[in-house]
Amino acid sequence: MYSLKEKSVIQLNINGEIRDVVLSPSDILMETLRGQLGLTGVKPGCENGDCGACTVLVDGWPVKSCLMLTVEAIGKQITTVEGLKNAPIQKAFIEKFGFQCGYCTSGFLMACHALATIHPDPPDILIDDWLQSNICRCTSYEEIGNAIRAVLSGEIS
Ligand code: FES
Ligand code: FES
Q1: Which domains does the chain have, with CATH numbers?
Q2: Ligand closest to CA 50
Q3: Residues 22-49: what's their mean pLDDT?
Q4: Tens digit of pLDDT for each residue in 86-102?
Q5: Ligand 1 atom with the shortest distance to the CA of 44
Q6: Between residues 100 and 15, which one has the greater pLDDT?
Q7: Which of 61, 111, 118, 120 gets the highest tally of CB atoms within 10 A of its CB?
Q8: Whose CA is nearest to atom 2 of ligand 2?
Q9: 131 C-alpha to center of ligand 1: Å?
C-alpha cells in the first residue's frame, strides 16, 4: 500500500529497468512515460481511449496508457515500443508495409506483439477483433493484418 503526497518519488519497472519517477497522484502513465522518461514512442492521439496510439504492455497485456494512472503502474512490468528490440512483429511491419505515416505504428506493434504472445494460434476472428482496439487513419489495416498473420504463421520470426 502506497501513501502518495502531492509529489512523491516512486520506482517503476520500465522496459526491464527500474526508473525513478516523480509523480502526483493524478498523473497519467502516457504523460509520465513521454514527459519524464523520454519514451516518445508512446504516442498521444485521442487521449481518451479510442485510438490505441498510446498502447503499452502492462505485465504483457496491451493497455491504453492515456487511461492509466501512473500510480497504477507500481509493481507492474511496463513495456513500451522502445523495449521491444527486434521483435518479429517489427520486421513483419517493414516487410509487409504495415504503416504509412507511422503515427499509429507503435501502438499497433504493441497490440500485435501481445496478441502473438498471449494467443499464438488465434482464430481469424480473434485477430480482427483484437486489432479493433487501434485506429490507423491511413487505412493500413490490410497490411497490418498481413504482418501479424506472417508472425503467427512463422513466415517471419
Ligand atoms: S491516445 Fe490513448 S487511446 Fe488514443
Ligand atoms: S500509418 Fe498512418 S495512422 Fe497508421
Answers
A1: 8-80 (3.10.20.30), 88-153 (1.10.150.120)
A2: 1
A3: 97
A4: 999 999 999 999 999 98
A5: 1
A6: 15
A7: 111
A8: 101
A9: 14
